[in-house]
Amino acid sequence: MELIDAQTHAPDIEWIPADHASIVAETAVRMCVLAMDSVGVDRALLHVRPEFCRSAAALAPDRFRSVVLLDPTEGPLPSAIPARATDCLEETVGELVETAGVVGIRILLGNVGDPSDKMLTPEQSGPLVQVARSLGLPVCGLALGRPVAIGAVAREHPDVTFVVDHLALMTVGLAGRADVGLLAELPAVLELSCLPNVTVKLSGLPRLSRVAFPYSDVWPVVRQVIEAFGVERTMWGSDHTHDPSHSYADSLAVFRDSSELTEVDKAWIFGRSLRRAFPLAWPS
Questions:
Q1: Any alpha helices (H) in 74-184, and if so which ranges?
Q2: Are 90 and 53 in contact (CB under 8 A)?
Q3: What is the pTM of this model?
Q4: CA neighbours within 13 Å on the CB side: how many for 274?
């Protein structure tokens, strides 16, 4: 069975001098390959800055495809492509599609409780989605605690595929905090299943658990998600390097080794669903 990780990261290189960036990016890509080989992951979708995209495409073109973050707000994120000037954005992203294995874009729709995050307005998100439409790319949306925000954009652009990162649940940075209602927005996430252009990532799911591996208490959530979206619109992602709460091996084994899923379910969650949502990634 093919195993594709729908969301993995490499270390940020903001602090590296520009003339060393390509060397650091190459080293980081090689580290990603070693990590994948250690747990048996065949391919991965990197969520990284352009330097990493280029290195991954050059060093291991059969192993990696990439998603790039577009940032239209003031003070661009170091890992993002500045998108305030949208007139040349399609050309910039298109060049990465052609030369660096980019198969999707990512937009930040704001995370509940994080004052550093800004929710994009329709005026800001619209041009970014248009770039994706023109290039035939899906849009990955990060909106922790705000699934309604993803739904609003997806409804406005029914001809574009949207991929919901981390199920839009408040998991990142909150693992183990019993005082946080991690599942408060789950009903709103499940309602997104009525939109045929929305698919979801089971990424970083062990953060939802209050117990040790194999995180048995996450399965009620997983079952509800699969029942709502079907395995055809559900994919697995590790969120490797961005989630210290569990190992890469455990994030994979909780799904791969589970008797809760059939072999057909696993084939979709570990690869076929991603190929369906990202048509430019690894043609069959």
A1: 89-99, 122-135, 147-156
A2: no
A3: 0.92
A4: 32
